[in-house]
Amino acid sequence: MSIRFGIRMRLFLAAALPAILAILVLLQGFLTRHERILTETLNEHAQGMAKQAANAAEFALFAGSQSALQRLADGARASDLHAAVVSFWTPEGELIVASGQPTHGRRLPVLEPGRPMLVNGRLLARVPIWSAEWTESDLFSAAAQPMVSSSDGRRLLGHVLVELELDILQRQRGELLAWALVATGSGLLFAGLLAALIAASVTQPLGRIGVVVSQLSRGVLGSRVDTRRAGVLRPLAEGINTMAAGLASNEAMLRERVAQATEELRQQKELAEHKARTDPLTGLPNRRAFTELARVEIERAQRFGQPLALIAVDLDHFKSINDNHGHAVGDAVLIDFAHRAQAQLRVIDQLARIGGEEFIALLPGTDAQGAFQVAERIRVLLEQRALAVPGGTLRYTSSFGVAEIEPQHPGLDRWLARADAALYAAKRKGRNRVELAPENPAEPSLLPLGQSPQPPLA
Ligand SMILES: Nc1nc2c(ncn2[C@@H]2O[C@H](COP(=O)(O)OP(=O)(O)OP(=O)(O)O)[C@@H](O)[C@H]2O)c(=O)[nH]1
């Protein structure tokens, strides 16, 4: 089973573990050293006490005064709080007197002189007692052969054994342990707090940076990290802010470009639509645009019960104008017609060029008679006014076919066919005329617009 730690816990452990280990090692070292010093101090204390008693007991032993030895033992024991037993022994190791209950009963324990030992919770120190001044070498030779005289003739009078209760050691140990535990606990607590602070100093700014980065990724490009609260991650926060500013400015630039491109596309589309619906020579709506306009006007007329008429126009002998004066003059004639006819129409009327020299005028709210008058007005105007062309002037005429929409047959094709029929009637009757389509023709010639048969020339 694998345990996954978050970044906060990892940082905490990274900061806390070395500190905890250091504290524990220091504690171990401190306890060991203190224990050693305490033991050495007690050893010296026991050794010193035994030596003092040995010096004091030399005469009493020499004199063989048991009572004096007893007083000495009692006195020595009473003078030290921790002395449990002070006892004197013969050179052969037999107990002479004891103040307190010796640990080993009546047998002198085998101890290395000068080296106290821990026995049954007591610290035992034995010192030999010589008849005269003794030296350190005497002390050791007596330990090796306790019942013999020393080389310089001094005589071993006996031994003193001091037993110290180790409650002081235990108590001090307890106190030390308690103190060490408090110190260690405080140290660990402090190390933990410090590690938590270190972890928080990284994870909190990281959290704030994470929020901003997630907002940036959702497109909130105005989002910024508060660098004053970024702590140790301030350089990272500043970097992210710089990046966000760059993204925001790039996005603004991109938006501007997209808006520009969209506007250009819209204009191009508008232009394309305009071109698709406009005759480039005269600027008038073309056949396609006319068809749409006519359908709308048919709907409107039907809905409001208003009359609607159209005038189909075809310039007379236009081919000969082209042939005699050239194509440019022919174009000028077409443009001139557009201007003149337009000038005779209302604003709501629509003039369209639907073929070479074919035009249609759509007249909403106008009946057949009204349209006839308009057509006649245009016809007369063309007939009367000459057009200035290179090298002189030119007169041209036009034929007109007028038809009003039939409420009972509102179809565009049928309506156009009726107007065409009237137009070609005008052609047949000699051109430069306006003809009205019959109101209810039994069989209207339903030829599509622009495909009418050539009327015979008069
Ligand atoms: N200059 C010019 N001529 C055009 C244009 N479109 C068509 N035409 C010409 O217009 C002429 C039409 O000739 P026709 O259809 O015979 O008609 P018309 O000569 O007017 O004869 P009628 O209609 O019977 O009086 C053709 O010669 C076409 O080439 C144009 O945009 N400019």
Automatic annotation (TrEMBL):
Pfam families: GGDEF (PF00990). It comes from the Bacteria. GO terms for cellular component: plasma membrane. Residues 251-278 form a coiled coil. Keywords: Coiled coil, Membrane, Transmembrane, Transmembrane helix. Its EC number is 2.7.7.65. This is diguanylate cyclase.
